[in-house]
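User: Structure tokens for both sequences below?

Assistant:
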Amino acid sequence: MTTTYDPSHPNYFDEADFRHELTRVYELCHGCRVCVGLCPSFPSLFDAIDAKDGDTGALSKLEQDLVVDECFGCKMCYVKCPYVPPHEWELDFPRLMLRAKAIKVRHGEQSIRQRLTDQALARTDLVGGLSVALSTFVNKAVGARDSVARQAMQRTVGISQHRLLPPYAKVRFTTWFKNRLRPFIKDRKAKVSVFPTCFIEYMEPGIGKDLVGVYEHNHVECSLPEGAKCCGAPWLHQGNVEQFRAQASRNVDILIKEVKMGRDIVVSQPTCAYVIKKDYPQYLRTEDSKEVSAHTYDASEFLVKMHKNGGGIELDFNGDLVDEVTYHAACHLQAQNVGLKGRDLIKLTGAKVNVVSKCSGIDGTWGYRSENYAASKKLSGALASKIKKTKYEMLAGECLLANTAITEETEEKVFHPIEILARAYGLKKE
């Protein structure tokens, strides 16, 4: 059996080999059970094995695949599991689930509806570009969850009509960046290239503007990786390895040029940062992808690194300050194993920060699918309950996907830590 999770391995797409590996991993998980509370996959797995008197090999294909279907790819196994590589047991549950989905795609086992949903969710640049150009019409059509347009979306491409969708901006972030008057950076401390995630590019350019403002306030020169597109996470999470590799390869070719010019890559969305740091080297296996990974930082992570390494960041907080913030520790941020740097940034402003660590149930595109909505709501509802038990003036979190789910549950805006820093500096005019 193949314990490797490298898609270039000759046995990666072999069904029989995969089933043997699935049985091995399921048996190890059943004997440990430390992950039982993370997601629906593990209770389903343990119940099925217990019903077979502990015989993991007796599970049917249907029972095995239910565990795969219920995995939403939060990556929290990397935080909780004691057997992840380089442990001798080489237990990498998240990548095994991705392998399962990749085999399903390779063997053409998806329904037409599933393929349509995959395409609708993965072609973020196409959909985003058109939606910004037609934002007045699009926002009106999809903003009301009981609208005819949302009902049609659910019936055709499988995106839940009940899920809150963020509105599209009128001007793309990269358009704003290219047209702005660029300031001279006095006493420059660093140079970065801002990777414009789909959310910032098409939906939340204000966060990108705040990021640039905060970085330049701290004497960091900002540029854009010309031509960079979506990180490719939607393709990867639905098992389309070929499309993901193509997307990753194009981005690496662009990002490595930035790195060679002495710039680090900063990313404000944890999922995208995780993909560039962890998945690009795993799936491309090139020196350029490894080099790009080594120079990629979460947006908050980079500033805290500056602060702790003696370069320092400005602490002249003369703007709007808050006394207490509740901060959501996003799953894909925790999986990067860099610490909660957004929390640390907010603390620098003098605010007390309450940390809530629980999955929002979105996880890339999983929570947007109509068939997953009910399960996703259970998770986001539990997260909202934990948030409501804390005291706060403002909600914060790095993951814009999770933030939308929190807003859906609480009807409150969730701010990126960079936005809070911009207000504390007095950079936010409105």
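Moving on to the next sequence.
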Amino acid sequence: MAITYDPKHPKYLDEADVRDELTRVFDICQGCRQCVDLCPSFPTLFGFLDRHDDRDAGRLTPEQQDHVVDACHQCTLCSSHCPYTPELDERALDFPRLMLRHSAMRVANDQVSLRKRITTSVLGHTNLVGTVALAMPALSHRLVNAQPGSIVRKLMKMTTGVSAVRLLPPFANERFSTWFKKRVPVELSKKQGSVSVFPTCIVEYQQPSIGHDLVKVYERNGIECSLVDGAGCCGAPYLHSGDVDTFTKVAAKQVKVLADAVRRGNDIVVPQPTCGYVIKKDYVVYVGGPDAELVAAHTFDTSEYLIKMHQASGTELDTDFSGDIAESISYHLPSHLKAQNNGMGSRDLMALTGVEITVIDQSSGVDGMWGYRAENDELSIPIAQKLAASITAADRAVVVGDCHLANTAIVEQTAQVPLHPLQFLARSYGIAEESTS
């Protein structure tokens, strides 16, 4: 049995070896159970094990093992709770990476249905879908903005496997990169840094206003902004669906363009947590090499970069907040931002305005695209409802969150429209929201 999370290991895709490793890890988990309330995977696992007096993980059938993996939405929160991770214990348990290994094994061994493969292809071709959506706005708005549960959405579910009942993030009228190239660059009076913005598919096609405010806030603080030339999807939908070959090809292309940007003297800033996590953590594992390491070392969440600049010697953040500042906010800490182990830059950044902050540390159950798969509705919606209940209980004036997909789930469950932290900061500076009409 190979205790490995290395996709280049010869046993990585071997089914017997993977299932033996699942048995080993599930036995460790059942004796610990610290993660029972984090996601559906663990209650599913313990429910199967508790049917037997000895709770022996070796009794689980392959189908039961598959059910445990299917319930994992790669929030990675279990890693921060686990006392048996490779860094802490010789048992070297990395539950999220084992789930990825199992998913890759099933894809490689043709154990995934054609329907699931079609859904992965639809959700994975983010650049193509975004380009088509912006080229045919009337059609895309009719499809994406259709009422959850409507005939249109049910037809979408039948043809693509995308949930008919989840609220989908709508597409914008103009790409972020189009706006960026048309804008008049600001002349910086005191340059404090240079960054290349990796906009992510979300900001590029669906919520460019986050990118607008990102650039304006950065330039106000003397940070020169450029675009990552050749940036595309980070590949997360493929990785989390088990399509390692496609993910690795996408990742290798992105590593090259990101490394080129770093060699030009720029750091990389990423406004969406899942994409930032993939670039920092997964590219090093699946692509590897000096360029992936270089990119990981120079990639930052957008708030993380600003708070580091503010705390560093010789640079400082503009703290003249003369705009509209809410009295209190609920700040949703996304799982993939927490998993980056870089503190809570967004909370610390917003705290500079004097606002009272309640941190909501609860997964949204979206994980890039997992929550939009129709087969995951029964698992994903209760997670979103739990997040909504925490936000409602906090009863703050404004909701803020870094992840636009999680924010869409918040809109779905609470009807409150969250801001990205960079949008909150822009309004606090008095920077007006740009019209996108």
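User: Anything stand out in the second?

Assistant: The two ends are 58 Å apart (CA to CA).
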